Amino acid sequence: MNSTPPADPPASLAAQGAAALDAGARALDYCLAAGFARLEPPILQPAAVFLDVAGEDIRGRLYLASDAEGAELCLRPDYTVPVCLAYLASPEAGRLAQYAYFGPVFRARPGQSGEMIQTGLESYGRTDIEAADAEILGIALEAADRAGAGALKVRIGDARLFDSALTALRLPQSWLRRLRRGLARGRSLETILANGGGAGALAQSGVLAALESADHAGAKALVEDLLAIAGIATVGGRSVGEIADRFLEQAAQRSQTHVGAEQQEAIRRFLAISGDPDSASRDLRQLAKDASLNIGPALDSFDQRVGFLAARGLKIDDFAYSAAFVRDLDYYTGFVFEAVDAADPGARPAVGGGRYDGLARRLGASADVPAIGAAIWIDRLPPKGARP
């Protein structure tokens, strides 16, 4: 897709204020100068895509509508999914392509405006994974600086390391998903383990065995098909998708295998690892040696990424790595990051993103596509001059 000159921002952004619009435009211009092409997918999107990717929990945050045929639509809650859909529908699908965007996203937020300005960038098709990771984070932070952001504190994680460590501990996929989702929602490891439950009658069913052997998307599709065959459309106001999500959650809770004491201790040690990336790498390698975890390739990738980040001039000693930092979406496959106001560590992320090689397949592609992106929430950027 060819780059086009920056267009005037949508009129609906006027409520955000001229200063915010100008800040977002400066961030966009920086991304375009770095070689990214402008792409603005439609504001109105099919709701089913977001519900399938993010789960029914997101429904309460969507602004929903219906078209003339009754299909459920929503105002786009983010750019990542719409940009990926546009990429897959373009002649560049499966090849290298890089996009930048600037416009409104819409999420219901109690006590706050549901419309926010978001600028960001998405990169597809690069096979030099660690270099691409470093470049996207670097450009995102530089674009935020160009928008006028003050000091930001960067936090990083690694979904590949997380998945590799838990897989090396011989935990089933159901536990891996359960741990990732629980941690992303702020639950302690003890709470997640305590709610695992024992095997019950449901665990003996052939349907559940099939579900346990499938990924979440495939398992959900199977449950939805079974409900459709049974002629079930809604129950108590819940849609088929909501029913399927709840069934899978209950099935997983009742079919968990026991997590042994040694496994629990290794998980605790892994999740406790945090600090600057170099120190964290040493701790991770020591844990891998002590617990006989075969996670060498993931650790090598971690170290290579840190090297590329340093080569880009980023102050990696100031970065905070946390093994427990994960995102509540199954399609993240590697590097994840966020940056918050350095003066307010508890603030919502002003910059966030990560690697999502699995999203293209979730959206209908025949195979994964290397992809990484970053979003900048203009209204969350701290003003210049702010000090931690």
Describe this structure in words.
The protein is of the alpha+beta class. The chain has three domains: 1-151 and 342-388, Bira Bifunctional Protein, Domain 2 (BirA Bifunctional Protein, domain 2); 152-172 and 262-338, no CATH class; 173-254, no CATH class. Helices cover 41% and strands 17% of the residues. It has 14 helices and 14 strands. The strands form three sheets. It has a nine-stranded mixed sheet, with helices on both faces. A hairpin with a 2-residue loop joins strand 8 (234-235) and strand 9 (238-239). The longest helix has 18 residues, at 129-146. The radius of gyration is 21 Å and the shape is globular. Mean pLDDT is 84; it is low at 1-7 and 197-205.
Task: Quickly list its features.
disordered N terminus; 14 helices; globular; BirA Bifunctional Protein, domain 2; nine-stranded mixed beta sheet; 17% strand; three-stranded antiparallel beta sheet; 388 residues; 3 domains
